[in-house]
Design brief:
Number of strands: 5
Distance between the termini: 89 Å
Shape: elongated
CATH class of the largest domain: Alpha Beta
Mean pLDDT: 77
Helix content: 40-55%
CATH architecture of the largest domain: 3-Layer(aba) Sandwich
Structural class: alpha/beta
Strand content: 5-15%
Order of helices and strands: HHHHHEEEHEHE
Radius of gyration: 42 Å
Number of domains: 2
Low-confidence stretches: 13-21
Number of helices: 7
CATH topology of the largest domain: Trna Endonuclease, Chain: A, domain 1
Strand order of the largest sheet: 1-2-3-4-5
Length: about 250
């Protein structure tokens, strides 16, 4: 390593040199060697500081090991304070626009067959699949799906009396003024039978003060309805200024 003694030797050389160009060259060498000496001193100072810091950190670690009660283990629990963003709340269903409301229910009904197919698959560890075999199964499954999107889902709400009889609704979304009627076809419940049942039900729904929209969901997994477009068109003609009728046939 170049030391200050070597630098002083070079200093003596350029002091005795009378040639100006040699003098300049010797001075440059001296300045360079002086800067090296300064750098060496700086590195030694930083080295001493690092050793001191390391010792301090080691002492801190030892202190923490000696007092585990004062240093609880790291928690991986996710809370609203640990997330870098706020989790959005689902908007209240009563704030849905009519368009969004109808679109959401249509989405659930039209996708019901895919939902039923998925939950009907073989399950792990020998558990029985969830089977949907009749109208009551459809109602239970749809009820669960509706609860994901709507705050106030009321099953089996009674309608006011009409021609001396009351009817029990399948579902009433009270805050949204929507009623849902559920049908599942079978060999004895096809085009004509479905049409007749819903036609008879519409006046009872129309008399309910919380029913401004009636959605008739017809689940037809075995394609018993020959002309779904015709059934839908005929039944939706029952709409008037008091109650809009919407028919959804899923097969």
């Amino acid at each position: 390593m170049i030391t200050s003694d070597v630098a002083e030797g070079y200093s003596t050389i350029w002091k005795k040199d009378v040639d100006s160009r040699s003098l300049i060259k010797a001075k440059d060498i001296f300045d360079y060697l002086s800067s090296l000496k300064s750098a060496e001193s700086s590195v030694q100072t930083q080295s001493s500081s690092s050793v001191s810091s390391y010792g301090s950190a080691e002492n801190n670690i030892s202190s923490k090991k000696e007092n585990p009660a004062e240093n609880p283990p790291f928690s991986t629990e996710i809370t609203s304070h640990t997330l870098p963003f706020a989790l959005p709340d689902r908007p209240k269903s009563t704030t849905y626009t009519k368009k969004d409301l109808i679109r959401t229910i249509i989405f659930l009904c039209e996708g019901f067959k895919r939902f039923a197919k998925q939950i009907g698959r073989e399950r792990r560890k020998g558990k029985k699949p969830f089977s949907i075999t009749d109208e009551y199964d459809v109602q239970d499954a749809l009820h669960a799906l509706l609860k994901l999107h709507f705050d106030d889902v009321r099953p089996e709400e009674w309608t006011p009396s009409y021609t001396g009889a009351s009817k029990r609704m399948d579902f009433l979304l009270k805050g949204n003024e929507v009623a849902i009627e559920v049908k599942m076809t079978r060999s004895t419940l096809k085009d004509a039978e479905i049409g007749n049942e819903i036609t008879l039900d519409v006046p009872s729904y129309r008399n309910h003060h919380d029913c401004k929209i009636l959605i008739c969901f017809v689940y037809d997994p075995d394609n018993h309805i020959v002309n779904p477009t015709g059934v839908k068109s005929d039944l939706e003609q029952s709409s008037d200024h008091r109650c809009e009728v919407i028919v959804i046939i899923t097969n």
